[in-house]
Amino acid sequence: MATTAKSPGDGEAWTALRRLLDLLAQGAPAEHFARPADAARQAGLTAARTQEIAEATEVALAIRRTLSQHRRREAELAALFDTAGDLAALRDLDAVLRAIVHRAKLLLGTDVTYLSLNDDEAGDTYMRVTDGSGSAAFQQVRLGMGEGLGGLVAETARPYTTGDYRDDPRFKHTATIDSAVAEEGLRAILGVPLRLGTRVIGVLYAADRTARTFTPDEVALLASLADHAAIAIDSARLLEETRTALVDLNAASQTIEAHSRAMRRAEDAHDRLTDLVLRGAGITEVATAIGAVLQGGMLIHDADGTELARAGADPQAPPPQAVAASRAGGRAVPVRGTWVCAVLAGHELLGSIALTGRPDLDDADRRLFERASVVTALLLLLRRSVAETEDRVRGELLGDLLTRAADPAGLSARARRLGVNLARPHAVFVLHADAIPRPRLLAAAARTAQARQGLAGQHHDDVVLICPSDTPSTCAASLAAELGQAVAAPVTVGAAGRPVTGPPDFAEAHAEARRCLAALQALGHRGTGAALADLGFVGLLLGDQTDLGGYVRQTLGPLLDYDAKRGTDLTHTLRTYFALGMSQAKTRAALHVHVNTVVQRLDRIGRLLGPDWHLPERALELQLALRIHQVSAVGGSGGDGNQSVRDRETTGKVRPTR
Fold first, then answer.
1. Which of 92, 263, 452, 512 is the 20 to 30 Å CA partner of 620?
2. Residues 6 or more apart from 433 whose CB is under 8 A from it?
3. pLDDT at 429
4. What share of the chain is helix, strand, coil (3-state, %, to 5)?
């Protein structure tokens, strides 16, 4: 099955998306999230790609906000639980109040926190506990009801906040209060009432020495802590009931925390897997994401047990019995420490997923693992649909190219939409494998074509592959090895001798590649790849555009070059030797030289042409090349005239060759 070709800009787009994930993992500030989109625009990506990255940035910022909210809520909940624990453990009221004020300071991150209690007899409220204060006057200040921010909170039983107390006209300023606040250097102040039922018994404060605005969440959190402080003040009367309530609260807190963790993990899994589906992620990305969520290794196999993806796990085949049991029961099943879940589309088995390294999978994670199989099923169905559609489109284009369809410009445009540039030189190959079914060879050819930005398909009875190449012969040999390894069987590859430079030439190249494949099979060269030019005189006879000069050069090149460089006549010696039945004695007589000279010349010829030059098959190639060279020389297209005369004197009348 073919994989989807990458379009230009994919690398920069994936880099930007990966950078967004890194920023999320690092907990980076929100303003940093605009950088990947800016980098993408500077890299010159298309508007569509830039928009995708911008949308991904919005998703990342939303996830960051969600994570920040979860972290803040977790910290708030933990602080409330810790405070409740202190209330249960401490009997001394001052110790409990100091703990509440200190935790308020830590949780809100303010410079100073403090607590005042109402004095019903004096009709005011006085400072009881402070944390972070350095002014003695501030620590001893008393506020009349309605005076300053604290007096107003104590009087109205409502929380009040100010970004800068010194310049806030809403409050009744007094010299005593303003002096104490100025001496402490406070500006932003938040105060919430301490209430027992409807009665206010004091005020809990949080303050900063710089002007700022307190958020509603901070107001709510401090109010929660104030409620605990009020309970502590009343604990002398309700201590026993409070202890009982805290036991229940501790159990509830554990349940809430466990539920919160499960919810966070489920939410994270939902967000990540949903994002993968929306982005059309590959199967490997899905395996990696599921493994990360479940903290284990992941394997994904198709219905035949072929591995499609693996992340953090060793290769292993899916247990057939476990897959069958999961398919029948609709649940994940454990097998020797590995959880296996069938991937189904209705009743159709699409494959299976396996989770390793998590033998103790709890119910929540088991349900999450089973939901992951549903996401995997959707992706496999989408992948199959896309592959089938693309294979059909590619096959139609290939068929039109090989049947000399009209409108070459239209063919080129269709190819460009599939990521194939027909303006480049392309080689045409015909493939054959005896030991495997044709669909399997076709699938392997399609994967190879995708990787090489080419096309593959079935044309009539042929499996045909075209891909960019300037050297069809070399490419045919490498394809035979690559495809043979992919299908675990010998694959024979016949190639057209010359690269194709335009749509009109593909049909002729296909015909030549078919003849080459037939010749390879007839010569017993199964499992190899070659072009007609590699087959010697057989290729010369089968080729449409016979290159006699090229054949001579390919066969006799070292010998001709040696003669031209050294001024020798080894070519004539070899021609005479073959013409006289490969007899050294007759050759010596014909050339009027000593027999040792003939032996030396033949030895030199062997070093130039290779040790197999005298074997029957190679000798036939050499004799044919010598005869073509001789005829060319006589016709005036090569060689020299004197040599031609010597050839005629030695070998007799020259006969035309075909």
1. 512
2. 441, 483, 484, 487, 489, 490, 491, 492
3. 94
4. 60, 15, 25
